[in-house]
Amino acid sequence: MMKITTSGKSLSDINEDVLIVPVFEGETARDGTLAALDRLTGGTITRVFDSGELDGKYDRWVLLRDVETMAARRLLLYGGGSADGLDSLRIQRLAGAAIRTLADRGARSVAFLLTKNIADAASAQAVVEGAILGQMNGGLYKSNDKPKSQVEELCLVSESANGVDLDRAIEAGRCLGEATNFARSLGFEPGNVMTPTALAGEAQKMAEREGLECEVLGEGEMKRLGMGALLAVSRGSQEPAHLIVISYEPADAGSGELIALVGKGITFDSGGISIKPANKMEEMKYDMGGGAAVIGAMQAIAQLKPNARVIGLVPAAENLPSGRAVKPGDVVRSLSGKTIEVVNTDAEGRLVLSDAITYAISRGAQVIVDAATLTGACVIALGDARAALMGTDQRLIDELIRAGEQCGERVWQLPLDDEYGEMIRSEIADIKNVGKGTAGAITGAWFLKHFAGDVAWAHLDIAGTAWTEEKKPYIARGATGFGVRLMANFVLNRAASS
Ligand code: BES
Ligand code: ZN
Ligand code: ZN
């Protein structure tokens, strides 16, 4: 875990291994902090700009060594792009990329200068989140690669006073960043390791650590309750399914509304009998990204202690074909009593979520937000920049959009008109689990809407955002933890405004 501190030290006294100084487009060695650094370094900053090596463009950087007039000795000038339109996401990416640039360069402690464009508390929080996310790497099971040297201490150097607001923002950033990395660490694991049982174990360990309640329902209990949809998905696998239930009930929240966060926890999705093509099937180990995000969000909530009642649910199962597997055309009875024609066994996420949503309602949930790597159609529509958002309550949707903008987990609302709902009418049962192939992200959401009923509900399709295919300057390839901060921020904001 990265240790994070603040300081108001002067530039020459900052004594971390490296001082990171963001540089934005249009800035010169005659501006503010850069001018001060230029004086301290005997005109080196002027020479760097003159050389054309640095222009403030994002991801362009210069590392100065042996700066004798500064205790830090090394200075990383890192391009942050245009100073206009700097938002949380851009600041996170700047901090993440700067930290990744220093990986394996023997920098144990770094100072990050909160220059005038990023001097407020929200920017400081973004720096912390970005640095924590940037610091994490994949490659878990490589025997010979020595682990990259990591930054262990981050000191935010603020030129203005170190207010309470700044400390609070940094603490929030630390909790949210760590929780996101925790969720990512679950997503990085291969399917043979991160089975439904292992996922439940991780949730239980986290709950114990953070003082949360965690129950794990096994297949016997789920069968007794009548969770025919969830169990149908798991039938083909040797790995037993679990329903993970984590609760956060602060004493002072009394009997306020209960918010349920529900995450798809398919630890491997082969498609089942409607089997997927081999190409890229290995990526389906991250089909538990929504579940991981819920577990991570519960960790952040436990640490940041909003005045709200929250229950996190993760239906965890493995979707495999076998002689026992659910087959196309099978009809199953869900916990809600609604019957489902399983036309395509690869549309399994909505099956496990439907029973989890009904269960959340039976536990008293008045607000439900689910996150799921639900459809390839969502990836086609929005790629990896935004998740799709749909739901029955516009106030809830607007709150989620705002929470996402705040932390850089951007979403885009799609419609849920009745015409789309008609696409999943079944001839034999109450509904079927797939439409006719068009509007796939929307029909997936419509399926879930049947189970949410009158409860305020919103669905995040994170199929495109839960995983990053190629490594980026600011983040390693792999699981992104998308949804952790969005859901946690949503709960924090709602608790603060009620
Ligand atoms: N887990 C997949 C969705 C997915 C696809 C996630 C690509 C991430 C990347 C989901 O279970 C699935 O297979 N959905 C089907 C639904 C279809 C059969 C209606 C899909 O999108 O093809
Ligand atoms: Zn599937
Ligand atoms: Zn799936």
Q: Can you give me a brief rundown of this structure?
A:
With 498 residues, this protein is α/β, with parallel strands linked by helices. 37% of the residues lie in helices and 20% in strands. The structure holds ligand BES and zinc ion (2 copies).
Highlighted features:
498 residues; alpha/beta; Leucine Aminopeptidase, subunit E, domain 1; Aminopeptidase; nine-stranded mixed sheet; six-stranded mixed sheet; binds ligand BES; binds zinc ion
CATH first level of the largest domain: Alpha Beta
Mean pLDDT: 96
Tell me the name of the CATH homologous superfamily of the largest domain. Zn peptidases
Architecture of the largest domain, according to CATH? 3-Layer(aba) Sandwich
- State the share of residues found in helices, binned by percent: 25-40%
Content-based structural category: alpha/beta
Can you describe this structure?
There is one protein chain. α3 crosses α4, α5 packs antiparallel against α9 (289-304) and α10 runs parallel beside α14 (440-452). Helix content is 37%, strand content 20%. The strands form 4 sheets. Strands 7, 8, 9, 10, 11, 14, 15, 16 and 18 form a 9-stranded mixed beta sheet that branches. A 6-stranded mixed beta sheet has the order 1-6-5-2-4-3, with helices on one face. With 498 residues, the chain is of the alpha/beta class. The two termini are 33 Å apart. It has 2 domains: 3-157, 3-Layer(aba) Sandwich (Leucine Aminopeptidase, subunit E, domain 1), CATH 3.40.220; 179-497, Zn peptidases (Aminopeptidase). The site of one zinc ion has 4 residues, from loops.
